Amino acid sequence: MTHTHLDPRAAALMVLLCTIWGLQQVAIKLATPDMAPVLQSAIRSIGAVGLVWLWARHRGIDLRLNDGTLRPGLLAGVLFAGEFALLYWALLYTSASRGVIFLYTAPFIVSLAVVWRLPSEHMRPMQWAGLALAFAGVMALFGEGLLKPAGTTWIGDMMMLGAAVLWAGTTLTIKFSRLASAAPEKTLLYQLAVSAVVLSAVALALGETRVGAITPTLLASLGFQIVVVAALSYAAWFWLIRHYPATRLSAFSFLTPVMGVLAGVVFLDEPLTPPILVAMTLVGVGIWLANRRPPIAASR
Known about the structure:
This is DMT family transporter. By secondary structure, the chain is mostly helical. Helices cover 74% and strands 0% of the residues.
């Protein structure tokens, strides 16, 4: 069943997912002193492949490759791998608070592409205004990074923007291919399996294979990334994409930067600067506007 709006169940699930994704950057940062970021990403995909495959087998999901999903599945996997290679690497240069806001420029790309391809998922002027406000917040934050003399923050910011483009490409590949009718677990397996190979190769090629002490923090971070983020949250996200409008989901996902900023401040003692506060405010208002239902006309 496909819904035209987000019902309470979908909204509650999106709040939970946004909280999990907001914590993801913090988990990566906490583990970085003990393990190279790209290696973290590769291990995450490898571990999650096993969990998702076992779950899919338990549920009796058809995992055959001759159903028209192989080609888009491989494409989605490559895009997914590129996204997370950039995301993990970017956190060497920028903070988790900033990075999560830049990553969530992806909904702009998704919304524009979906409206162009699917006129039935049109957006009203108020929704466009909401997306514009959120975009203004992101740009204000980017401007702050550019104005810092001799800093490298902007490098991480640009990497996060690149990750956002690849994330949008993954979402659109799923939405407009045979993957749209495939089981969420199968879609996720394509991405995890391909990214496990690609990210491992990237880590070796870049010499990103550093492993320090095996600390409780490292193990907890990897466990969170593998089980909660890569296995559970992405399966739920792909289920939502199949059953709810991509424009509504993408706009609502702007809540993640707010969660990410708060997590960075609480767990990493990152500064809560005025531009970050402005960006959070604009993003929050943008979510509200983009998800407002049209007023019901009064009966005569």
